[in-house]
Design brief:
The protein is α/β, with parallel strands linked by helices. The protein is built from 29 helices and 31 strands.
Amino acid sequence: MNVLKFGGSSVGSVASILNVKKIVESRKEPVIVVVSALGGITDLLINTANRAAEGNDSYYRMYNEILDRHENVIMGLAAVTDINAMRTSVHNMLDELGNIFRGIYLIRDLSDKTLATVVSYGERISSLIIASVIEGAIHVESRELIKTEKQFRKHIVDFKLTNSLVREKLSNLNSVAVLGGFISSDKLTNENTNLGRGGSDYTASIIAAAINSEMLEIWTDVDGFMTADPKIINNTYVINHLTFVEAMELCNFGAKVIYPPTIFPVYHKNIPIIIKNTFNPECSGTLISSEVKPQEMKSIKGISSINDTCLITVTGLGMVGVIGVNYRIFRTLAKSGISVFIVSQASSENTTSFGVRNEDADLAISVLREEFSSEIEMGEISDVQAEKNLATVAIVGENMKHTPGIAGKLFNILGRNGINVIACAQGASETNISFVIELAYLRKALNVIHDSFFLSEYQALNIFLSGTGLVGRHLLSQIKKQKEKLLNHNALRVRVVGLANSRQCIFNREGIDLDNWEEELKSAQLKSSPDFLKQEVIKMNIFNPVFVDCTASPAIAGIYNDLLGHNINVVTANKIAASSAYENYSGLKKLARKKGIKFLFETNVGAGLPIINTINSLINSGDEILKIEAVVSGTLNYIFNVLSEDVPLSKAIRMAKDAGYAEPDPRLDLNGSDVIRKLVILSRESGYKIEQSDVEKKLFIPDKYFEGDVENFWKIIPELDAEFEKRRKKLLAQGKRYRFVASLDNGHAKVELREIDSKHPFYHLEGSNNVILLTTERYKEYPMEIKGYGAGAAVTAAGVFADIISIANIR
């Protein structure tokens, strides 16, 4: 025999009651029907009683509204049933209710016992109405079956007595039985009690477990458990199946589909629950059972939240290593009837935080301060603190068990979206990760989590790469090596859909095979040019596009504006655009912001070092860049580091080129133009409007060595070897080294060769490393130092790759 529970708007109108009648009468065997009060009646009963207790005459108007609501429903059912006997019975109960309201009004008092009697009329009347409508149904008085006893200010079901009474009355039915949910009575006094919020679900579960029902059916006004709250997130969908554990976790953290205690009675009897929609009975709904389905691909089943959270923290060094502190905390709360729904404790044992409802917060603080008064007085425990206006969020799923990366992905998503986690908890069962955040961020948190975990199995980035030289090759190699890991562990699919060098280009919206890209590009029929490349990228019109520039071409830099204008992200290692005329640089950044896409050029300075991002972070958080000192030419630093008695200047320059540190034409490094570009970019990102022509230059190689072609340069550069060796020896004797330094001070930009002593941070810079010192309003006395590899194709490609991956965070 199945137990069916109908509640909320499922019994809120004549039409919904007729739906209940149709569903129940379609069953071939007798069923037990549990109903809640007519929709909205319980709140109206409580509010009317409170008005009466206040001596407010408006209670009478509200009482008349209760009369009218029930009368309208009864009269609306006249076409399908004989309403006379039902109407008489309902009117008699409403008259009793009216007398109770008048008594409350006269004595100006509303006890818990009286309120329990008042609210019982909702289910008593609704169950009588529905029993009269369903053909052949009998009405059963719930208060005679569901018996409670008082514990910690709450009425707890006496299951032994209740089960006995339910079996005796309902086990051998030959017809439909209808009874009200929620209501109960004290086992000793028979006074009216109730099972609390959502108690009608609980009533149905108690009865189903007592008679060993085949199925508990919860009929409501939604299609089932949703992946998240549809009032907050538009693209939720119904969860077809949950385990008992998953359902309990979701219910405990705010999912209002069923009342949390509902699950316990049927769980112990292994009786499945199905959630169905009274208004959409054809929908399959959500089945809750003990079965775990590992074949279900998604790691988490749903997201639930409690928007009524207060986090209480007990802290103090006197708690460390002391046995029984937590026992005292939770014993004290239990004695006061305070429910805790999340607990987070530091491993050092000096802090325990837990979440309670805001309405319980003041009482919790009071009883805990009393419990630990002596420890607080002695300073062993700090004063108990409460932080209100918070929310608790839980992600739930049995498939999270032994699945690495779920927590990492969750907190990464939250962090990228600026959502601070105040406290978190995860049990060893791994079915629930819960965390507390500010209430103001709840909607944002739910949306970003749902978007990342539910909408698709992965996010895709479609890349167009221009430039297949050293940096481009390394980038393709890194993408090839990392793509499976990114897909499997980060749910990010990186796909190269376009490749171009200065001669040819290929496009494939399904993705280019990175094992054979070089052969495919060599045999390509499409001739490459900046304008053709721009047209093809725009024409493909693919989602999440990223144009990547690994060239040094001014013409390629010239197509950025059109690409950004068509909502195509741009990631570039090419310094030309960001160091071009300030108006062009500023226009590109403004266009990207306007379009909500990315124009990223982190590798323009320091290869893979996080220099530009750091400057942006400082400025965006309100800091001001006062001064920059930097060694940002890996090439020049390499040259000055390898200079020795055996390695003259000309050989050092050739070694830098052969090692891949120098530009193909090393004069671009030696004439300071590369450093000037980098300094201009850093200055602009720091908030200064500077052109390349504004930079003061003090170079170490005379202008004549930059005349003519590069072959001529290699012929004449050895002329400087002897002079530089003389200067090198002098510096060595003084304990100094050469460093080509870019600086910005009070808006004045300069590049120059400096003699650096051993006390300076630049002195110990090795190889091709870069170092940047940032003096800001916050970092005045001790400048911020960023140091590391600043040149080389591999680290530059890695920096480009990092920029590409960051595009995945745009949602």
